[in-house]
Sequence to fold (287 residues):
Amino acid sequence: VSTQSTGGCERLIRMLDNRLLDVKAKKKVPVSNYTQEISFTRDVKPELLAAQLTHIELDFLNNISFGEVISMLGKDVSSEKGSWKNVENYVKWFNHLSTFITTEILSPDLGSSRYLTMEYYMDVAVICFQQGNFNSAMGVLAGLNQSSITRLHKLRDRVDKSKVDHLQALEDRMGLCGNFKEYRLDLRRAVTEHKHTCVIPIFSILVKDVHTISEVKKTKVENTDLINFEKCWELARQFEEFRQYQAGVCDLQSDGNIQADILTADVLTEDGMFFASYNIEEPVTEN
Fold:
């Protein structure tokens, strides 16, 4: 981890961007000990599950102050434990969500119905996006695109092609092309057109934007003692947008039991995910 002035934020950005942070979830188990205690695909409609993700996201987001985001910039996050606890918790949640999705698909109890679970979470990702919950949509996409899933070509071949097309369209809209141009347009429309009672931005992009303004732009105009009001205005705009996100009220159906099941669900370790993946489809070897 860098100890330079931007080390703290850069470390956080790496944590968010890679989505492979070695964060210990509440419970991680090897594949040999994993059993699926609840079947969301059987008991919960994707619209209802997506609604619970939005409730969870808003709770995590509301625990973070904009000052917490600002204060961590230019500091070594690893050296001041507890100072950014709420941000760290939000990062852990994102990683838990993506790992949870992968675990659900790789569950050894699924057998031949595994592709239906994959289709189910494809629907959840699209619905999250449609509901204005962009962070969960990205988290579910991350889970669906784990290498332990993408290598399962036989499984993916069984998935409904129309769902694959919808997912591809979603990935295109969430892609990094043009500095996430399409996502930014969708986020702006969701906020300005009041399509939803709450909007959840992709947190990693929000942090990147604040970092760019705070660390890249100079506080004073070059070669003068004049304050760079452009930087001040841009930070103020980010703060106002952050407050708007937190002021949202989720009017979607809430189910505390489902939320608790997601938050406390067992998830496979990284090794466990690959073991499960190889048990489903053996590696292709060249003769």
